[in-house]
Amino acid sequence: MENKIRIVVAGPRGRMGTETIHMISKTPHFELAAAVDHKNEGMSIKDLEGLPDIDAPIYTDIKACFSNVETDVLIDLTHPEAGKAHLQAAVDYGVRPVIGTSGFTSEDVVRFEQEMEKKRLGGIIAPNFAIGAVLVMKFSQMASKYFPDVEIIELHHDQKRDAPSGTAVKTAELVQKVRESKQQGHPDEKETIQGARGAEIEGLHIHSVRLPGLVAHQEVLFGGEGELLTLRHDSFNRKSFMTGVRYAVETVMTLETLVYGLENILD
Ligand SMILES: NC(=O)C1=CN([C@@H]2O[C@H](COP(=O)(O)OP(=O)(O)OC[C@H]3O[C@@H](n4cnc5c(N)ncnc54)[C@H](OP(=O)(O)O)[C@@H]3O)[C@@H](O)[C@H]2O)C=CC1
Ligand SMILES: O=C(O)C1=N[C@H](C(=O)O)C[C@H](O)C1
Question: Which parts of the chain register pLDDT below 50?
Fold first, then answer.
């Protein structure tokens, strides 16, 4: 039998980390080698509530983890600052990173791309692992060629820390590659309440909604003369992301550069 892919998960108690560890436990060619948390040093995954019965050690220091545990892939599902530090540690130790954590800037991405290019180390930063969400990004890019007036509404649960979502930013970046920069709305429009028109990237507006009960949702609206095209994706639970996480882990084993966005590796 082929060797299993040995994975470290950072953020094991979180909503995504928990779902990911369950997915790993059910995937025959994956093995949870260890986890990185900011507490529970020395404990095991099986000791934590809601996690499967796997005897994998928990480290609070990612460098100690990589020094002690043979690791093929790091999956990071934490917060932006921790995610960046974990990605840097993975690069330093030659571990392939799969980063789901949102909130990285384009400067961060470029810096890591350059560093990993030099080391010929494969990695993936995926603003969204849900296949439907990735398709909406691709379809949005296609549509913006014909409909340059675009607004994005992203809707998430109220525990989300970053706004706008990584998915909305990536969607806007893909749209900007084909859409000429243009100021949308009336040239003299004025906000009578600050923020009414949302965030703006080269004239394209992004609106962030945070409500209990939501998981992760996005609408991309394209306005034309007498018509409106709406592309919408809904993640109703975190299982929706697991096909993409599994695919990213398998694919990163074959890469020698950092890939930003699952759309770049989907057939
Ligand atoms: N790419 C994608 O498809 C998706 C990406 N995400 C992104 O993934 C990230 C996690 O989301 P979610 O699971 O909902 O968030 P949670 O807040 O539920 O989970 C984050 C976990 O990381 C832990 N954590 C914080 N700092 C550290 C650290 N230094 N080392 C290790 N663990 C740490 C937190 O612990 P504590 O609570 O004690 O602070 C928490 O358990 C977010 O950035 C989110 O935007 C989410 C869904 C899909
Ligand atoms: O925090 C979340 O939940 C999500 N974050 C990612 C993002 O910022 O786009 C992906 C997905 O939308 C869920």
Answer: none
